[in-house]
Amino acid sequence: QVQLVESGGGLVQAGGSLRLSCAASGRTFSNYAMGWFRQAPGKERDFIAAISWTGSTLYAGSVKGRFTVSRDNGKNTVYLQMNSLKPEDTAVYYCAMGRGWPARYDYWGQGTQVTVSS
Question: Contact 85/23 with Cβ under 8 angstroms?
């Protein structure tokens, strides 16, 4: 059974930073691409960033240069370092696990809330 558990969300002022973590279990982590998505109230879930099993990365234009995705295969964990946060970054952030590149995501975490105050 695959389990993805996000952590690290919270309340931060505009311009601040947060690091999200997503711990995975139930699959051979190093064989999968990992992605980050977010969903703001009343909006669709949007792609943010992804990292392949080889370390290649993709970013949405809205976060490129501010967010960095990384992974530690020894800890079965993917990270999202978020800098220069803006109020429009406020959303529930989800990690996902998938195959291929760009990935098709089959497994999702429960989400963690990020709130950026102005």
Answer: no
Round to whole Å and give the CA distance between 54 and 62. 24
Q: Which residues of 68-89 are buried (b: 16+ CB within 10 A; e: fewer)?
A: bbebeeeebbbbbebeebeeeb
pLDDT in tens, 65-104: 999 999 999 999 999 999 999 999 999 999 999 999 999 9
CA distances from residue 29 to 10, 11, 32, 34, 79 in whole angstroms, order as listed: 26, 29, 6, 9, 13
Q: Do 113 and 92 meet the contact criterion of CB atoms below 8 Å apart? A: yes
Say whether pLDDT at 112 is over 90. Answer: yes
